[in-house]
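Sat 14:20. Reprocessing the chain from the morning session after the first attempt stalled halfway. Input below, unchanged.
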Amino acid sequence: MTLVYRAKDFLNDIRAYWRTPAKGDFVAYKEYLMLSIGWLGMRFATVFGISFSVNNPFTAMTLNMTHKDLLLFSYICTAIGYALAPVNAYIIDNLRSRVGKYKVYIKLGIPAGILSLFALFYPYEKLSYWPMVISLFFIGQIQGYVNQWYNTGVSNLVYVISPNSQERVKIMMVSSLVHNFAPTLTGFLIPILSDVFAGGDLYNIKTYRMVYPAIIIIGVIMSMSAYYGVEERIVQPRSQVTSVGLFDALKAVSGNKLFWIKCTDSWNNFMEECKNILMQWVFYYGKAGSMTLYGIIDTVSYNSSMWAMLFSPWMIDKLGKRGFKLVKNISQIFITLGLALTYKKSIWFIGIFFFLNRFWDTTEIIDRSIESDIRDYQQYISGERIDGAFGVVETYVGGAIGALTNLFVPWIYRRNGFDGTDYSVLEVYKNYDDKKPISAQEKNPGCVLYPLLDNLMKISFVGAILDVIPWVFYDLTDTQQKSIIRCIRIRSAAEDKKAGVLTDDLYCEACEAIFYADEYSCKEKSALPDRKTAGKSAVKEAKTYNEEIEIAGFVNKELNRFTTDFGKELLAFCKNITGYGKEDFFNHYNDIFSSAAALPEGKTKEEKTNRSDAVYAAKSIRKVKKYIKKYYPDGLKEFSYTDFEAAFDLPEETKEERRAKRAIIKKEKSERKIYGKVMKPYLFAERIANLAECYADIDSFTAEYQAAAERLENEKEKHRLEEEAKAAARKAEAQSRAIKRRK
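Finished this time. Tokens:
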């Protein structure tokens, strides 16, 4: 009965919070669904791609490219990735759109789908080897680049859909369960259809062309639900003008210890993932069973991750993200060992251990959750929302590591008798005839399949052990992440209020963070009550109480940051710049740089980052005079935040109005970009000075809270009534249609 009651409670929650989120949450359940359907559609739409990696099913095994050529083109692709990475990072970090930071890329799904269909039906098999390879390369680069932005647009929404880390985990869990159906479906259909139409030849291009087209078209259509049904809730000041330079972003990210921990874990996967080819090879080359049976086992084992995804929010809540990663990676050690010891005994052992291995494949939840927390932490310590630079570092450093590790697996293959060209050495049986029983098949005396797999399993075991080490040093807790978000809200609200573009929702959230910090600052943590006697709810309340005390300490530290020795020196430096004025500060480079160099080193990570930023800002002043002459020959023109915002509210009912609006928005964006570039050192100092002014008189900042809260509540009530009216109208229309049909 307990399960029945829980199911009823769950359904009641969905009905109650379908359009409006629960108290303390930011996202309604309808938006969960829109993101999940959109993500599933994107996975369908991008399920076919061209990759130049060893053992790639399409390029290596269907079109029979040699390992040597695959490696050569993979290096060329890596070099192209190096060249494009800074451009991609700059676009992500600086493209300002009312649509959103990531949603703007989702509409690339339509050209992405067209390119995928073209890539699928291009007549590779009619070309000789090198024309085919060159065609593959150019088609793959264009298709891959568009797919990359399309994928970024949908999948990165989960980073900005909510500022609440625990809520993001729930959203990731739901969306992962849904969108992971894409590889499940294709993984199930392709082996079965290869049995039916291609005599079990899994690597036949006809099999691809029978399955993918409909999936791609349906996927593109489905993915648009993420564009129209999801809202971005990134916590960032609207009034921020400065752009994020690539060097600045790389400098900031390179000092982020948490980011390097996550990277180290992923860069070692080339060892642990050596075991992933085992089941496919044992079935395909070892003839351990039919491809239909392989498809069934593969599909069942892939779906095992669903159970871990369902339990992920609970496990993260109990263990924390660091604890979850440690348990996950330690479990992989024993799973790899079990597979190595049993895979030759029965295909069912293979199925069991691949089921367990994929059970822990919760990357979409835990890794993305950690990634979003890392980005929040980066914004806190650097003051800028940086996203693209993370990809640049991963591309450059990860690409260099990948260039070396890509040689490792082919080297292992060659050491074990497989040169990457002659796949016949992997065949266990010579001239295999599927009409004869296994006992009547002639064995291939030159087969190296099982000795090769044995060595791959040893390497995978070592890799699983190494994967545990980085997470011992991960130290960002969920409570710290909540504290960081509250501090970012306060900073953003302070900046926007000074600029006159503050919204009621951000202002109320910032004020509430301050009120909570004041309420819990003088309290002491309480001991957790006994769960058996006090009950689950009492333990939860005690944990929340203690967490609020810890958050209060973090927030009060932020509010008092300019009362410390370092804070006073930093503020004096910034006031030194702003004291000269916008039209004269660049004439005092020597004085400003000397004061920056004299700043104390700082004790905390944030203080050290602030000092580094101050010194960099001082050095940048040398360029300001040159920039002003170039961009403002008639004198500096100050950028207007209100004019920029007003441009997006201009009418667009007629063609002329739409054209005029686009021109004005383009002009305002250009002026914003130029002003941010020219005045970046001054704006850095002004931001710090304004923040200090706000913190010094926090009562004045929060004085308008009651009025703003009432306006916000009235707006929510108005929205609720509008939604109810729309729902009633839809219901009445449906009833009217039903009456007409009966007549």
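The longest strand covers residues 429-430.
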